[in-house]
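wait is this the right file?? whatever heres the structure
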């Protein structure tokens, strides 16, 4: 990614087409661009094709939603009634949406698939290496982690670059519980031309802030003021104030506004009245400042969108100046007004760009933004790894930009693992495990791996118990029942679709129903989780929705939000197919399937029941099963199970106690005879 100019910030997703559900939206867009470009279409400078891509993508999204019987992508709600944009905007939506795929290296700038993008789309990414397995990451996590470890932010002027995600990892390995806004502001302010020593100094200089011995604003001004404008611009602006050279030309140049010169002259009015107020304590200036301070353009330019001063009713100028004596806009050094303007404009850009940075970085599964505090997930592993790598963990460098981001055989487009990217040898990985073992007081290599796995499990159980207790799960399921999607997003996450959230919450619901809890919770989630342990996307790959593996039983849960009229078409075959393969894999441990939906189709239920006595062949598994045991619950019934504190083993035992012993005619109403004893 190459910055446009010296004051630009890197942008992980185009602000004119922000999406919350990054993983799912990018997957659909990636598949569509792959199909779209196969017909020999050209992209560059072809706005008609770019607009056609976006129009047909919307059509595809509508088709997917109709097939699933639900609204999937809230980000496209306002775009579904496609309208051709004005002539100067044709193609913009196609370009901006696919920019995120370029910035992740899944396609090149000509919208052709990269090697890694093609493998991701076809579920053939290189399997997790030993380090990635130790981190407990899933394919979506791996794709974004690998690509962001390779992502370079290049200078606008030359071939210097820095790895922004690696900087984030390095910073978070040193500190914990960093306020989210502070972390993103630091991350977005680092420049590609800074040396490794300068970048390390930024990390070191944050220590007094982390110890509450220095304010973040003091730290930020000390470390980043000189980076926000060139030395020449800072110097000439300082001269403007020293010489009182306040021409319109100077204000348009130094207090610039990309939309209009008229706004720059509004800034001039505000600045001159500030100077008059502080130098002369003029009543006229005071009244003008009170009025101008409420102007949205002034607030945005000089106070990060807020009213820049504290005002009191009927206060005098003296009281006003006393109440705002720490405000740099009222400093006797009027050059501070310009610096506040620079900081405010910079803060505005950071607010604009930080949301997509947060969303994309947490997809890696390595960074948590929980409760507004930023931390490394798996910090023990990462911190130990960085200690072993030392200066081999490269953060800055210089290499030809075009060769790196435009050549198809560049490592940027290759499907390689984290150990390959960071040059971690098998021997170094062994040292990593041994070093971690020493911290656990364990020397046996295999026991260390078990301990790491147990630590993952402990973290997940603590997370669920803290963030999703039984009462909250019931609340969320109630909102899903009535399809109050916005409330569900608020209570869980807006980074995933409602069907993905449904699977995630049902997994947690079964955890609460489990009596012994002798299964690995962190291995049970069949949705990809982000760094906050919240859902991102269904994993895919043909597996069932939720698989619970215990010593007493094995359970496949299939969940859908399709209404009952669509279930026969959309769910009957997949549920039976997944159940067959699941039964073949776990035939020795009482396999059970449960189907859950907001409403149930009676025909589907009867066919499930009839499958008790039908021999079926596996698809992903070789072999045959002599009938299937598939039961069904509504979401409301799952809520009742939680409310009545029913236990998993009792539920499954009751289902099995009511299995037919020989082939029989299936009449409607068979399920109610089983539900009643389960719920009572």
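ok assuming it is, sequence goes like this
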């Amino acid at each position: 990614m190459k910055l446009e100019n010296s004051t630009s910030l890197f942008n992980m997703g185009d602000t004119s087409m922000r999406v919350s559900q990054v993983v799912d939206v990018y997957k659909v867009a990636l598949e569509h661009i792959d199909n779209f470009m196969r017909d020999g279409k050209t992209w560059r400078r072809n706005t008609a094709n770019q607009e056609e891509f976006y129009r047909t993508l919307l059509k595809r999204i509508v088709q997917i939603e109709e097939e699933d019987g639900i609204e999937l992508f809230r980000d496209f709600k306002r775009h579904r009634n496609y309208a051709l944009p004005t002539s100067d905007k044709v193609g913009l939506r196609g370009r901006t949406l696919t920019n995120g795929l370029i910035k992740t290296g899944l396609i090149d700038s000509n919208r052709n698939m990269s090697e890694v993008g093609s493998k991701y789309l076809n579920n053939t990414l290189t399997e997790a290496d030993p380090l990635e397995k130790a981190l407990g990451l899933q394919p979506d996590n791996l794709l974004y982690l690998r690509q962001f470890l390779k992502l370079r932010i290049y200078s606008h002027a030359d071939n210097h670059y820095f790895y922004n995600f690696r900087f984030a990892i390095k910073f978070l390995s040193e500190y914990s519980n960093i306020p989210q806004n502070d972390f993103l502001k630091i991350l977005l302010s680092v420049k590609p031309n800074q040396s490794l020593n300068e970048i390390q100094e930024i990390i070191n200089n944050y220590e007094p802030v982390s110890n509450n011995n220095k304010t973040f604003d003091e730290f930020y001004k000390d470390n980043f003021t000189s980076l926000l404008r060139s030395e020449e611009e800072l110097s000439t602006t300082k001269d403007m104030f020293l010489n009182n050279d306040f021409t319109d030309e100077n204000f348009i140049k130094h207090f610039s506004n990309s939309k209009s010169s008229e706004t720059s002259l509004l800034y001039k009015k505000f600045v001159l009245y500030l100077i008059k107020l502080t130098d002369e304590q003029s009543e006229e200036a005071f009244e003008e400042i009170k009025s101008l301070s409420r102007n949205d353009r002034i607030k945005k330019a000089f106070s990060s969108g807020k009213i820049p001063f504290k005002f009191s009713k009927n206060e005098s100028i003296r009281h006003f100046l006393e109440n705002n004596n720490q405000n740099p806009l009222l400093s006797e050094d009027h050059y501070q007004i310009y610096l506040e303007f620079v900081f405010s404009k910079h803060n505005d850009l950071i607010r604009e760009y930080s949301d997509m940075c947060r969303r994309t970085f947490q997809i890696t599964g390595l960074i948590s933004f929980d409760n507004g505090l930023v931390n490394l997930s798996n910090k023990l592993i990462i911190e130990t790894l960085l200690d072993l790598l030392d200066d081999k963990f490269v953060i800055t460098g210089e290499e030809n930009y075009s060769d790196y981001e435009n050549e198809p055989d560049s490592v940027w487009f290759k499907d390689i693992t984290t150990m390959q990217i960071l040059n971690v040898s098998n021997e170094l990985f062994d040292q990593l495990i041994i070093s971690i073992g020493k911290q656990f007081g364990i020397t046996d290599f295999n026991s260390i791996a078990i301990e790491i796995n147990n630590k993952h499990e402990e973290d997940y159980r603590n997370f669920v118990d803290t963030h999703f207790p039984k009462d909250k799960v019931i609340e969320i399921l109630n909102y899903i029942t009535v399809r109050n999607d916005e409330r569900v997003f608020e209570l869980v996450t807006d980074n995933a679709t409602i069907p993905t959230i449904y699977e995630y919450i049902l997994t947690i619901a079964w955890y609460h129903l489990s009596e012994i809890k002798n299964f690995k919770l962190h291995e049970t989630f069949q949705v990809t989780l982000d760094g906050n342990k919240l859902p991102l996307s269904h994993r895919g790959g043909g597996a069932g929705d939720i698989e619970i593996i215990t010593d007493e039983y094995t359970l496949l849960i299939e969940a859908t939000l399709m209404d009952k009229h669509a279930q026969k078409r959309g769910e009957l075959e997949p549920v039976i197919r997944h159940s067959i393969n699941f039964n073949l894999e776990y035939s020795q441990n009482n396999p059970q399937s449960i189907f859950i939906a907001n409403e149930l189709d009676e025909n589907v239920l009867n066919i499930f029941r009839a499958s008790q006595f039908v021999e079926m062949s596996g698809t992903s598994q070789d072999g045959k099963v002599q009938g299937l045991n598939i039961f069904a619950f509504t979401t409301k019934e799952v809520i009742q199970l939680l409310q009545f504190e029913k236990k998993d083993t009792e539920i499954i035992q009751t289902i099995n106690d009511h299995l037919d012993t020989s082939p029989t005619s299936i009449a409607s109403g068979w399920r109610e005879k089983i539900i009643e004893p389960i719920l009572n």
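The longest helix spans residues 335-363. so i think its the right one actually
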